Amino acid sequence: QVQLVESGGGSAQAGGSLRLSCTASGMTYSPFCMGWFRQAPGKEREGIAAIDSDTSTTVADSVKGRFTVSRDNAKNTVYLQMNNLKSEDTALYYCAASAASTLVTRVQCRTRPLFGSTYNSWGQGTGVTVSS
Description:
With 132 residues, this protein is mostly beta strands. The protein contains one helix and eleven strands; from the N terminus they run E-E-E-E-E-E-E-E-E-H-E-E.
């Protein structure tokens, strides 16, 4: 069973930066596909970034140019660097992983990286609050 633990959330001023981390445990290899999602109060969950084990990345238009996703396979950790934060970035941020490196996983990760259905493991979330 893959376990995901997020860290790095907190408060920031508009225009500031935060870096979120998510470490996977409970497996002997790094998850093939890892993603970041967020959910603001009263809104639906939104996929914002994803990265596969070949470091191919996808970033949602809503955060493109401000957020970047990276990973360290040796540490089973994925990062979300958030720059030029805005008040609308306030949300609970979740890490997700699709551990298996099957053909289905690879196709889903490449074609639907920001869909929740691509992932089968989720973290508990870390809160980000941006004040203007």
